[in-house]
Automatic annotation (TrEMBL):
Alphabetically ordered keywords of this record: ATP-binding, Cell membrane, Ion transport, Iron, Iron transport, Membrane, Molybdenum, Nucleotide-binding, Transport
Organism listed in the record: Streptomyces lannensis
Matching Gene3D superfamilies: 2.40.50.100, P-loop containing nucleotide triphosphate hydrolases (3.40.50.300)
SUPFAM superfamilies named in the record: MOP-like, P-loop containing nucleoside triphosphate hydrolases
SMART domains: AAA
One Pfam family in the UniProt entry: TOBE
Mop domain residues: 298-362
A molecular function (GO) term: ATP binding
Location of the ABC transporter domain: 16-248
Protein name as it appears in the record: ABC transporter ATP-binding protein
CDD domains: ABC_Carb_Solutes_like
InterPro entries documented for this protein: AAA+_ATPase (IPR003593), ABC_SmlMolc_Importer (IPR050093), ABC_transporter-like_ATP-bd (IPR003439), ABC_transporter-like_CS (IPR017871), ABC_transpr_FbpC (IPR015853), Mo/tungstate-bd_C_term_dom (IPR008995), Mop_domain (IPR004606), P-loop_NTPase (IPR027417)
Length: 363
């Protein structure tokens, strides 16, 4: 994946000589207000990540010109697109449900874009055939959408978007409609094509794995605004909201540090290895939690809380316990351990976490 120099969102474009995307998207819809700044360099893939209703798709549609902005603007490669109609923008879009023309073959679906941009029928079909070959779909050129699998239809939609050589590629939940096995294969292919894409790519998803695998940088949107951005590893290591913490599988708390002790805003204190002062976040994975049926005697863990099991669910090959009480947290344990502890909703347990397994950082 290509990594390029980045600047703060909404500042000057990140590419050389004004290349890339520099946008501030302000959209007012009833009581909902979207206000998101995006600065993306050529060759960079940015994922807009967030819960349902956060404004991700609205932002994508505003970039495409399908939703009017009530403030801000969109600048691509130094040119303002605010007054440019959607069909005239150098933008390719892959929608969640593909929106292929049902009466056209795969070849003619892909050729549609070049034809709209002035290519002759023969030239458009030549371009389309080349893209279908790159997608491994040369043998399906004559098939209509109803004869294609979900993965094949997604590849045709991507080929159609790329065939016009867009300067901005927008992908709206491109893998959401695929089954798990197909999703795995298409995600790997999509990563390869995005790595080769030399212009700007913006991906909207609520799936953290899609975002982590496909994007160079994540922009997390909640309630219409950016709450955190950074590389996937930065986001995973230092989440700043409960939504992000749940996304990356961490217990997250906010409090005030004094040395190695963090006093939580609502709850007990947590002992950490980091020595900090002032407002901080503390995070630890569910796998760092050890559960006991009775209060452990002589336990070395400085962090010990009396909790109650609120719920249990299968999480991969483990059991995840949702705990409330002195501290609300999630704990992962094996099915055997859960059975030995006699875990069930309402049961009382003692939870411990070693200070070395916590991670504290400034809020």
């Amino acid at each position: 994946m290509t990594h390029t120099r980045q600047t703060a969102p909404g500042s000057t474009p990140t590419g050389v000589d004004g290349e890339g995307l520099d946008a501030r998207l302000v959209v007012q819809r009833g009581s909902f207000r979207l206000d998101v700044a995006l600065t993306v360099a050529p060759g960079e893939v940015v994922a807009l990540l967030g819960p349902n209703g956060a404004g991700k798709t609205t932002a994508l549609r505003a970039l495409a010109g399908l939703v009017p902005v009530s403030g801000g603007g969109v600048c691509l490669d130094g040119a303002a697109l605010d007054r440019t109609p959607p069909e005239s923008r150098p933008v390719g879009v892959v929608f969640q449900d593909y929106l292929l023309f049902p009466h056209l073959t795969a070849l003619d679906n892909v050729a549609f874009g070049p034809r709209c941009h002035g290519a002759s029928k023969a030239k458009a079909r030549e371009i389309a055939a080349g893209w279908l070959d790159r997608m491994g779909l040369a043998d399906h050129a004559g098939a209509k959408p109803r004869r294609l699998s979900g993965g094949q239809a997604q590849r045709v939609a991507l080929a159609r978007a790329l065939a016009t050589r867009p300067r901005l590629l927008l992908l709206d939940e491109p893998l959401a409609a695929l089954d798990a096995r197909t999703r795995l294969e298409v995600r790997a292919e999509l990563r390869r094509h995005l790595a080769e894409f030399e212009a700007v790519a913006v991906l909207v998803t609520h799936d953290p794995l899609d975002a982590m695998v496909l994007a160079d940088r994540l922009v997390v949107v909640e309630s219409g605004r950016v709450v955190q951005e950074g590389t996937p590893s930065e986001i995973a290591r230092r989440p700043r909201t409960d939504y992000i913490a749940q996304l990356v599988g961490l217990n997250l708390y906010r409090g005030t540090a004094g040395g190695h002790t963090v006093r939580l805003e609502a709850g007990p204190a947590i002992t950490t290895t980091e020595e900090l002062s002032g407002p901080v976040f503390v995070a630890f994975p569910p796998g760092a939690v050890t559960l006991f049926r009775d209060r452990p005697s002589g336990a070395s863990a400085r962090n010990l809380w009396r909790c109650e099991v609120a719920g249990l669910e299968t999480h991969g090959d483990q059991i995840r316990a949702d705990l409330t009480g002195e501290l609300s947290l999630a704990a992962d344990l094996t099915a055997v351990a859960a059975a030995e502890l006699g875990l069930q909703p309402g049961a009382t347990v003692w939870a411990t976490v070693k200070a070395t397994q916590t991670h504290a950082y400034p809020a």
